[in-house]
Amino acid sequence: MNIIIKHVEIIERIDQFIRLQATGSPEELASRLRISRTKLYRIIDIMKKLNAPIEYDISTQSYVYVEDVGFRFGFYSKEKNINRLSSSIS
Fold it and tell me: Is the pTM of this model over 0.85?
């Protein structure tokens, strides 16, 4: 189970770097994440399989999203979200 959580945490960090367009090269990103380049490529492949529109932009030397997307993993209370929605509509 811990391996799943670890992968999700890595995906969240990659997502943050991508949003900032600050991943750097694959080697630099792998080093920042303290994982191998091979593992980085595997995780990016998983993200792509989850429909993340990731590409590497040579001009910025960073991975980027080619579409506006969001990533969220975890559980949340439906009641709290319904209350937030109704208070924002009022």
Answer: no
